[in-house]
Amino acid sequence: MITILDRESVRRAISRLAMQAVEKNEGLDGLVLVGIRTRGVVLAQRMREIIRKTEGAEVPCGVLDIALYRDDLLSGECDAVFKGSEIDFDIDGKNVVLCDDVMYTGRTVRAALSAISSLGRPKSVRLYCLVDRGHRELPFRAEGIGKSVPTSREEQIVVRLEETDGDEGVYLLKKGETFAKENMA
What we know:
Shape: globular
Number of strands: 8
Order of helices and strands: EHEHEEHEEEHE
Largest sheet: 5 strands, parallel
Strand content: 25-35%
Oligomer: single chain
CATH class: Alpha Beta
Strand order of the largest sheet: 3-2-4-5-6
Distance between the termini: 8 Å
CATH topology: Rossmann fold
Number of helices: 4
C-alpha cells in the first residue's frame, strides 16, 4: 500500500479545489455545491466551509444519490443502496459544482448528470474530484482535480476521510492488497 495523500495533503487539495471553483465561477453568484454520496458529500461540505471562511458567505450545499441512475442497476452487479438526495434549493439556472472523491471510468459522472437533470436545468455543471485515476470509458473530465494518479486497472484507490472512516488519506493498493490501517506507511 502506497500513501498518495496524507491528512495535510488532503486538506491542501480540498482548499485548492474550493478556490478553483470560486475562481472559475468568477465569484459566488449562482454557485451551488452538490456532493455525490458518500465521500463526494464530505468533499462538498469541506469546500463549502473553506468558501465560507475565505469569502465570508454561505453557498448552498446538497447531497446527490445516484443509485437509481447507475447503468449497472439492472445487471445484478450493482450493490448500491438508495438513500435519497438531499437538495433543498433550486438548481435551475445555477452553476453546479459536482463533487466526488475518485474519477475513474466516468460512469458515476454520467449517472450524476442524469440525477441532476431530473431535479432541474442548471446553467452549468462542473466536476471537482479529489483524485483522478484515469481509465475513462465515457468522455468526461474534471474541471478541478486534487491529484492525478496514473493507475492500472488492477490497482485500487482508497480514499479515507475523517467523517466517514475515522482517519484521513488517499492510498494506492496493488492487485491482491487489502486496506488495513496497520499497513499505512
